[in-house]
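Morning F.,

Quick status update on the modeling queue. The single chain you submitted on Monday has been processed. Sequence for confirmation:
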Amino acid sequence: MDKQFYEAPYAYGAHMGWDMVEWSDGFARFEMPVRSFHLNRHDNLHGGTHASLLDTVMGYAGCWTGVPDQRQMCLTLSLNVQFVSRSDRPLLIAEGRKTDGGASIFFAEGYVRDDQGLVLARATGVFKYRRRQTD
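Structure tokens below.
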């Protein structure tokens, strides 16, 4: 990934511990080491962990501009998550892809898998572009 486009995690992302490892037109990939606070009371990954990763990678996938100083932001309108499997592996990998859209709304899909390739969750989402703020 061209590091000029790398974005350091915002406060929530930093807390969750994910890192952007790839970002390009219509695509984003994040990785996140599993920590104890990502687990539910059954010691399984909390569903909110999957949902947060999926929401993030799908949003980024639709917000690529190709110009580091021209950030595009979006809001999630709809997020559907299907929980497919469980894993106790130490690393999560999330990928999102923009699948369609227009000038104000886009659609995306994504998945979270473990570091052995097992798919843990899939999602689809609808996102609305925010107007770019000008100075």
